[in-house]
Amino acid sequence: MQKDTLVFDLIRKELDRQRHGIELIASENFTSLQVMQAMGTVPTNKYAEGYPGKRYYGGCEVVDEIETLAIDRLKKVFNASWANVQPHSGASANAAVFLAVMKPGEKFLGLDLSMGGHLTHGSPANFSGKTYEALHYGVTKDGIVDYEQLEAKARAEKPKMIICGASAYSRDWDYKRIRAVADEIGAVVFADIAHPAGLIATGLLNDPFDHCHIVSSTTHKTLRGPRGGIIMLRHDFENPWGIKDPKGNLRTMSQLLDLAVFPGSQGGPLEHVIAAKAVAFGEILSEDFTAYGKQVIANAQAMATAFNNRGYQLISNGTDNHLMLIDLRNKNLTGKKAQETLDKAHITLNKNAVPFDDKSPFVTSGIRVGVPAITTRGMNEAHMETVVSFIDEVLMNADDENKVAAVKQEVNTFMQQFPLYPELG
Ligand SMILES: *Cc1c(COP(=O)(O)O)cnc(C)c1O
Questions:
Q1: pTM greater than the 0.90 cutoff
Q2: Which of 251, 268, 284 is the last residue of a domain?
Q3: Above 80 in pLDDT, residue 239?
Q4: Ligand 1 pocket member 120 (CB < 6 A)
Q5: Same domain for 204 and 264?
Q6: Is the CB of residue 26 below 6 angstroms from any atom belonging to ligand 1?
Q7: Percentage above 70 pLDDT, the chain
Q8: Residue 222 is among the residues annotated as catalytic for this protein
Q9: N or C: which end of the chain has fewer CB atoms below 10 A?
């Protein structure tokens, strides 16, 4: 068969784009070559509905070994006693958690989307907001989770589940405090660690597992694996809420979650992606990954200082993790304008609402900046100053096409010292 050059030329073009630009989208990263290679392999041909040892199809003995290896490695990464590696994405993992815990119409409490929460934490446009009654807590004027408001809403509304976790929040979480109020009202605590999971895996942030009943994550953000989702428990438990499976039987939480992933919300698992997850979890268990996590935090700190020194306003005045949220109002710029102009200089990030934003979600007053991807490229603290100087040069000359084009040239030259997949030629 003839090579489909149309598609492969586009993939090559995307590789060149990734090589030449500065990637600051906080949810992105670059997997290892091995992780990518595992994804493009023959388990993609296999149907394996069910779980290892309990499949609905024949010929699953090898994919059983692959999936079991992924589960065992993941349990080691987070010191968990149970894990499900089948969710196709973070949103799919969260859908399964909702399905396992909540009946339609029941209440849950999550971080407001305009203050850093995720779509699946109750957006009116998402299944979570359409199927369940979504209640929200926010952040204080200082940009820190408003735990008092969370506690007051929890006591007043008695939600079935409280979600902690965010997509645009630069501070660590007080999981213990959330668990305390949840225990008062008998609520399930669900931590969605999609963003900081890699920093939690390396022990650099608070550990949610001791305080939260259920933990979900993506595998492609700070965990640096293939695109996908996971769900974990440190301790399985006979669920004290009397939640029953569709046949009316009482089940443990792990059984409810397994049933909610398959057959509850997904069909056949992506065993080639699960193979790539196993490779990534193996990498996370190495010392190199611990060094990576430390460098991510060091880079985020250095970048925050560099922005501060140039008069940029960081929400909460800084960061504990891999990202920062910048309010551009004192620079007379919108998030939209900043994103679009930086794109022209091959610096990629996203516009983002800041807490109490007066602009629409399409315009926004802020940008979200993350360092996981550039840290994987090999940058250290000293490079953060250079990156921020490029950003500042572009934003302060946003209407000067020549200046923006000149920065693009500098960015492309700068990135040549950080090779990406040199094996691919
Ligand atoms: C990214 C993210 C998700 C969803 O992940 P997808 O793989 O894009 O579906 C869920 N929750 C949070 C907090 C996230 O940041």
A1: yes
A2: 284
A3: no
A4: yes
A5: yes
A6: no
A7: 100
A8: no
A9: N
